[in-house]
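Sequence decides. Consider this:

===
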Amino acid sequence: MKPAFFFALHSFLFIGPTLGQGVIEVLNANGLNAFAAELSTYPDLIAQILGRNDVTVFAPTNAAIEGLPPTKTYKNHTLSRRQTTDPNAEASTSAQLGKQPPKPDTVTKKRQISGAVDLPISNYMTIYSFLENPQFVNLGVNQPARFISNEAARPDGQGLAFLEVVTGNGDVVSQVQGPFKFNRGIIYGVNSRFTLPQLFTTTMQAVGSATPFFNAVIAANLLDKCENSTGITIFAPIGEIGSGLSPNAHIISNFLGYTPNLLPGHNYTADSGALINITFGPTGDRLVNGKRLVRPNVVMKNGVIHFIDSPLDGSLPAPNTTSSSAPPVQTFTSAAADTVKIPLGIAVFTGTIAALVLHGIF
């Protein structure tokens, strides 16, 4: 039999006894004690976990947490000093927790949407985190921060693929343990904390490969829009861009275009009025007006930036007649709010069920 089968069978047998155990018990049982201690200090987060059955925990390893300043004992738990002095510590912990979005009453498959092409299975998954702190999230009322994960092949080609998660500033966090089942979901051990989403300026400076585009945004007096608009998607060309570039041709306002939301076969309307067309390239990657996504899904406070290999200007002329812009939408709601639009038919493979299927546990 294939090694992956034995790995999956071993994982299933290993986590079997933990199916009825809580998150803290399973974290401790699998050597993720530092994050268990950290999470235990936030009763509100524990209560949120207990109120759901679809929670995914991305627990930094002890080594990742011990890389922080020295520890001290607090309420019978060993905590990093950061957790007792940093006012944003709870935001950092909540970012490590994911959940599924509410399901629409009726689900339209991607292939049923008019104009869509047949789609291969995507490894990209949207993680709807517990993070709603307005210092780091401006996606709409009661809208949580999102991160995007992808199944990556192991360097040796053996065993199951592992998860990589793109977090704030484009920092990538990798799975190093798990998955481990607990009574409200699953746990992955990861090699680092998620970087919290930052403002557009901070994110662009951290990535550093699209300075000419950033300067063009400033010259066009669009910095405030890119920093503060609620729910925005930006396609930022890297390197030199030449003269006459229109930043608005690379921006879609009021749309969260994370990779799972960009439907090949559809046109989206940029703020300039130009069309942005999504297609598949020869290797199955998404192309934007034929341009390659070289660094997709870099999350920021108010949306997402995709870094592309060259400008979009002139790739697709603005339409003279009415044409399809964005597909029908449904809204993700939390409490009584529904402000950020997400295309119908997006297969958002988040939370417990998708992760268990991907890893052969069910």
Notes: The CA atoms of residues 231 and 254 lie 5 Å apart. The two ends are 18 Å apart (CA to CA). The chain is about 25% helix and 25% strand.
